[in-house]
Amino acid sequence: MATLVLTVVGADRAGLVAAVADEVDAHGGNWENSQLAELAGAFAGIIEVSVAEARVAPLRAALAHIRGLVTVTLPTTGSSRDSADRRFAVSVLGNDRPGIVREVSTTLSLRGFGIERMTTEVRDAPMSGGRVFEATIVAISAASADPDDLAAGLEQLANELQVDIAAID
Description:
Elements: E1 2-11, H1 16-26, E2 30-39, E3 42-51, H2 56-64, E4 69-73, E5 86-95, H3 100-110, E6 113-125, E7 130-141, H4 147-156, E8 162-168
Antiparallel strand pairs: 1-3, 1-4, 2-3, 5-7, 5-8, 6-7
């Protein structure tokens, strides 16, 4: 079996996910993992599927005909992750301002943490009349990385940021 990673990006429309799922099924593939979202009228997703080696090319050709942009990638074999890697849940909450994602991602990177998954949201803060930024991150690190150092680094970004880090078992 081959593992494919499908990237779906385009204008949101009814039936886009069903069209991809139909093609995966028609070619004997199995939809394994996905993250899909609609933002501001655009649809984006990443989907992991497995399919028999002999059916990779026909599935790629079929997906190319779906209205909307579908890109198929064959991931490299093996993982860059070590079995000793640890995962941490990182929550960031604060007054919205430009640069928070850049600052947070740089702080993670400089301390040996990568981002496995991240969601962000900006919403109105009714009590203060401003806007609030919130991020939920699953960060992954080598066993030697220090989560306390990461927390200190994130808290230094700005006085208004609140940071919570917890190991994920």
